[in-house]
Every structure is written in structure tokens, then in C-alpha cells.
Amino acid sequence: MKAEDEGTYWLIKDELIKAEDEVIISRYLKRMIVNGDSWPDHFIEDVDVFNTNPDVEFYSQSTRFVIVKTRTEHCGRTDGCESGCWRIIGRDKLIKSKETGKILGFKKILKFCKKTKPREYKRSWVMEEYRLTNNLNPKQDHVICKIRFLFEAEISFLLAKHFSYLSTRSPRPANDQLLPAYGVCLFYTEAEGAFYLQTIIDYDGNTWPSYVTNDVYRLHPLTLVDPQDDKFKEFGTCIFANRTKACGKTDECDGGGYWTIVEGHRGIKSKTGEILGYSRVFQFSENEEPINVCEGEDVNETAWIIEEYRLDEKKKKDKVLCVIKKILIPLSPR
């Protein structure tokens, strides 16, 4: 692929990933079906995704666009494969032109439901299926499917946007942006703290949406995150809570172990020196015997930690942003 072609490819892919429903239908699906335009390189053509395991077919860190023959018109689930099947979790929604109000097509949302659920923090394959109106494509012979591997919070947000009504228990952020699923890695620790506190400030609700609230201090870390997720390994995963833990040690978690405060409150200041909020660190301890280390041996142990961020008590004191990470801790020889 030539340099200019490669540049164009990535520009189009970036546009596709960020594109609104109207753009995917009018700029891509309609042009391919009605105008007979060629399939872009970004699409996999005629892949029978409904009968295959997405864990095998797709890479979890990359959004894929697939051209398939529709299989979900009259039923709530597909035939599936040995490991599970696709089920409709958001039925047909009208996609209209913002400019003219004309109906362009429809969108439904499906989720791949596994027959056996893993213990790890739940992420699931989600498919957004786009189709044209019958007058533009009477046979309904092809649809576009956007396939992603999402956190439960992202799925809930996607459904909140899909439905015309919003649950009062799961309000959508006023700025229409999903709360961050991953942490950040900035040059200064102070800058990271300021970023997380600003995330809390920017959210207008009185409490976090219920779909991202986790009783993080009572859960084993493997129920909160996917340790094989590349982004988790690099940045950590954001967990949101409407309360904090006051004492130094939590009760025993579901699945065993407990969280202990290992670093007390540290003030996070603005550029003018004003205290914006505080951070502290929890470490997870398993109910296991301590590791024996031979004299002179260099050993590193991994540890689960939570970096907890909250604003000054005068500002949104019930909102807590936690970043859960797995880090290496050097052990001194015994």
C-alpha cells in the first residue's frame, strides 16, 4: 500500500469509528447498495458472523465493519455457534436525516451471549446492524455490522442512546460523552490527578450513572477488570463509585481477599496552589501465605492496586473515581 493510500485508509477508518448512525447509512451503505459503489477496504464482505465465534474471528482491540446478509429480521437471536449466539438487545430504531427529517434506514443492537460466563470482568462483543429502508433495498440482501468488544458500562451507554427514552436510574452524561473506561499515563503524577478530578467536575449529575457504579471495595479485582486487556495493562481501568471507604481495611471481598489503604490522602493542587481534591491508594491482599524468597535472589511480585480520586468535601463529595491497576513490586531478599 502506497504512503498516500495508507494515509487515506486510516483517515476513513477513523471517520467510520467515530461516525454517527446517519453517516454510516447514507455515506457508506446507501452508496454501496443503491449506487453500486465498491466495498471499501475497511469492510469484510459476506462474512457469516452470526455462526462464528467473535473471539476467534476478530481482534478485541479493534473495531470491525462487516458486510453480511441480514439474519436478524424476524427473531430475537441467531443460530450461533458452539460457544454462544447473538441476541438482540436493542430492536429497530429509525435513523433519520438531521437536515431533512427523512427516514434513511434502521439500526438494531445485538450482543454475543456465551454459554459459559468467564469469571473475569465482563466485556462482551456487541454488533450494531444497519440496514436501508425497504424502498431502497427491497431484498434487504446486505447490511453493515459494526462489531466491537465493550465494557458493560459502554454497552449500557450505547443502549441509552439507542432508545428514545432514558431510564432515570441510568442517566446519560449531559455532554453525551461516555465516562472514560481506561486511565491515563501523563508525565507528572499531579497532572494525572488533575485529569481525574476534572472528569468528576465535568460530570453534571448528582451521582454517577448507576450502570458504572461498582462496590469496588467489596469485589475481587478479577470481577472488575480483564487482566489480558492490552489497554488495561498500560493504563488501568476506571471504576466509578458513589461512596468511598473510610477505614484502613475493607471487609472480605466476594471471592476472598480484602483491600487495604497503603497510602493515605494526598492533596492534589491546581496551578494556583488551591487544593482541588485528594487521592489515596488501596492494595489488594489475597488470603495466602507470604512468598518465601531465597537470600540474594531478585524477585518481583505483582500487586493489585486502586488509585482513588475524589474532590474536596465541599464539591461532589459522594463521587469517587478509582483506577484499578496491576503493578510490579520489587521484593527485598529475606
UniProtKB/TrEMBL annotation:
Residues 11-150, 178-327 form the NAC domain. Keywords: DNA-binding, Nucleus, Transcription, Transcription regulation. It comes from the Eukaryota. InterPro entries: NAC-dom (IPR003441), NAC_dom_sf (IPR036093). It holds the Pfam family NAM. GO terms for biological process: regulation of DNA-templated transcription. GO terms for molecular function: DNA binding. SUPFAM superfamilies: NAC domain. This is NAC domain containing protein 23. The lineage of its organism: Eukaryota, Viridiplantae, Streptophyta, Embryophyta, Tracheophyta.
